C-alpha cells in the first residue's frame, strides 16, 4: 500500500474585485493532479513558478483545504478528519519551508521552537522533552548550546537545519519539503541535501521534495513529477525521466538548465513566450501555445495521463500518434 | 593587446560601520577586454555585487570608502571622477542591469517614457526620433509589439521586464554592460531566452559584459573568462575551459564538486565544511583555510599571494605557489 495517495486533487483560489469584493474569477492553482507516494521514497515535484507545485504540497497536508479530490494517508482519507483529528494526524506528516527565517519565531529560543511540537502532541515530560531537543540538535549537526539562541543568531544553512529538526521532532513518516535549499548558497546547499538524505536513511523517512532546480531534484529523488500550470504533465522514475523525457515541456525544461561543463555541448530548445496566467489557462493542453509540436487536437482536448510503459506516465497527445 | 575596456587595479573598498570595518573588496584585480564576457562568481557576501556598484560609483559613501586602488575605464580613473562626470558615463558608456527588474523600473511611468528619457538624457534628439530608437531596440530584444511603449511595468511578465531592462541598457550602445544576477529571479525556460539574447547582443554590438552570478552553470555557458571571488578577494581566475576542467584553488574545486549535475548521478555530494566567515572577524592567514581540506601550517599564518599557475590562469593558494615555485626552479635548472 502506498503511504500517500492523491487522486484528482483540485485547488482553486477566488479572484475578488470591485468594491464589494465579489468573486470575479478563479485561479486553478492545482487542476486535477493524481499521484502516489511509496514508503521510503522521495517524490520530486518540479516546475516553474506558478505551476502549482507548492500549492500541491500544502493542499495534501490540508494547510489549504482542497477544492476537490481525495487524499489518503496510510489508506485513510484525511479529508474527512475534523480539525482535531487532523492536528493529531499531522504528527505523521511534517513540512520544511523555503525560508527558514520566516518560519521560525524570532522571539523564541531554538530550544523552545523545537520543544513546541512535542508539547502540542503531548510527547513526553519536561525532562524527556529537553533530552529529545538535545538529541534533535545533534542529529542535524548543531550543538547543545544552540538551544539558548534566537533564530537571528544563525546563518541560513543553520536555520534550515533547525527547520528540519523541528519537522523531525514528532517522528513523522512523511516530510513535505518546499524548496528547502533554494535560498542557500551552493556550498551550504550540498550540506543540507546530504543531511536530508542521511536522515531519510536513519529514520526511514518519505519525502515529497518540491523544487524548481532540476539538478537538485534529480540528485535527491527516486521518482519525479513535472508540473505545468496546475497540472502534472509527466511522472516517472528518476533515471527514466531524465534519460528519456517524453513530454515536450520536460524536454525543453531540461535543455534549458545551464550545465557547468564547457564540453556539455547540448542542443537547447528555447521556448517562446511566457507561462500563461493560471486564471485563464489555455483550452486543451495547457502547454500547447508554447509547444513546438502542437497539433490541432492539442488546442481542444486536454490530454490525460497515460502509461507510456514501465510506469512512465505522460499527458501528451503525441503519444497517441 | 589593445587597451582593456575596464581595468580594476588592487581595489580596496571598505565599509566603516559601528560594529567595525568590513573589507568587502580587498585588493581586487580585474580586467575586461573589448567584446569579452567575463564572469564574476562567488557566494553571498563575497563582494561581487559591491564590486559592480563600485564601478558604477553607486556605493554609498559613507559608510563605504575606496581606500586603495583604481578603476580605469576608457583611460580615466573612475574613482577620481565627481558625481556629474560619473552621471555622464552611467547609462551611456557603462550600463547595468539588476536581478529584479521590477525594482529598477519606475512603476508610475510607461516603458516608452522611461526608454525615451534614458536616450534623451544623453543625446540631443527629438522625442520622435527617440521613440523610433526605442522601438528599434525593443525589436532587437525580442519585443515586437509596438503597444509595449505605452504599457506600465506591472503589465509585463518578469521575462519581458528583464528584456525591457536590457533594451534600456543597450539603447545607447554602452562599451560595458554590468549584469548583476540578471536571470536569478527568472524561471529556467525564461532564463534560457534572456541568456541567449545577451549573447547575441554581445556579438552584434561588441559590448563587453561583466556577468555577476552565483550560478556556475550560467558562467560555463556564457563567459570567456571567469573570476571566482571569496571574501572580497580573487580566489581564482582562468578562462572558461581551464576553470571547469582544471580548477586550481581548493575553493573552486569544492564549489564544482558540491553542485548536483544533470548529466551525472552521485550517491553523495561533496560539501565544503563550515560556513563563510563573518566579515567582521576574518581568519588570519588564508581566508579559506578554516574550510579547506588541504590547509597547511602556513595557510593559517600568512595570506597567500595570487600566483600564475598556467597561461591566463591565476590562483590565490599556497599549494599553487609551491607548485609554481617548483615549476620555476625546474625551468631554471
UniProtKB/TrEMBL annotation, chain A:
One GO term (biological process): transmembrane transport
All copies of domain ABC transporter, residue ranges: 4-254
SUPFAM superfamilies for this protein: P-loop containing nucleoside triphosphate hydrolases
Pfam (any one): ABC_tran
GO molecular function: ATP binding; ATP hydrolysis activity
Keyword Nucleotide-binding: yes
Species name: Thermoactinomyces daqus
Name this polypeptide is given: Dipeptide ABC transporter ATP-binding protein
InterPro entries in alphabetical order: AAA+_ATPase (IPR003593), ABC_transp_ATP-bind (IPR050319), ABC_transporter-like_ATP-bd (IPR003439), ABC_transporter-like_CS (IPR017871), Oligopep_ABC_C (IPR013563), P-loop_NTPase (IPR027417)
Keywords, alphabetical: ATP-binding, Nucleotide-binding, Transport
NCBIfam families recorded: oligo_HPY, PRK11308.1
Record family assignment: Belongs to the ABC transporter superfamily.
From TrEMBL, chain B:
Cellular localization per UniProt: Cell membrane
Residue ranges annotated for the ABC transporter domain, each copy included: 8-256
Domain of life: Bacteria
Keyword tags: ATP-binding, Cell membrane, Membrane, Nucleotide-binding, Transport
InterPro entries: AAA+_ATPase, ABC_Ni/Peptide_Import, ABC_transporter-like_ATP-bd, ABC_transporter-like_CS, Oligopep_ABC_C, P-loop_NTPase
Its membrane topology: Peripheral membrane protein
Listed name of the protein: ABC transporter ATP-binding protein
Cross-referenced Gene3D superfamilies: P-loop containing nucleotide triphosphate hydrolases
Gene Ontology CC entries for this record: plasma membrane
Classification via NCBIfam families: oligo_HPY
GO molecular function: ATP binding; ATP hydrolysis activity
Biological process, per Gene Ontology: peptide transport
Family: Belongs to the ABC transporter superfamily.
Pfam family, one: ABC_tran
